[in-house]
Amino acid sequence: QVQLVESGGGLAQAGGSLSLSCAASGRTFSTYGMGWFRQAPGKEREFVAAVSLRPGTRYADSVKGRFTISRDNAKNTVYLQMNSLKPEDTAAYYCAVKTRAWIYFDQSRGEEYDYWGQGTQVTVSS
User: Is the pLDDT at 30 greater than 90, yes or no?
Assistant: First the structure.
């Protein structure tokens, strides 16, 4: 079982920046598919960004050019740098990991992931 511990988030003004981190347990972190999702009150969970060896890095259209996902395999950590924040970015952000080997991996589907973090709140004021 893999445990995920998220940190970062908080309150920012529109146009500002925040950074999220997600530390994962497990010995083969470098092989894992990592993703960030978010859920705003009253809305469904939505994909934000993902990174894996295959197929690579992917972003939701709504965050492309503003958010950057990265990973440090030596630290078993994935990051989400969020710039040019907008009030509509306000949500609980969740880190997720796919540990099972795959032939095809749709990074945007939450069902593809095996474990989830507890979530961290991001609030952007206008």
Answer: no
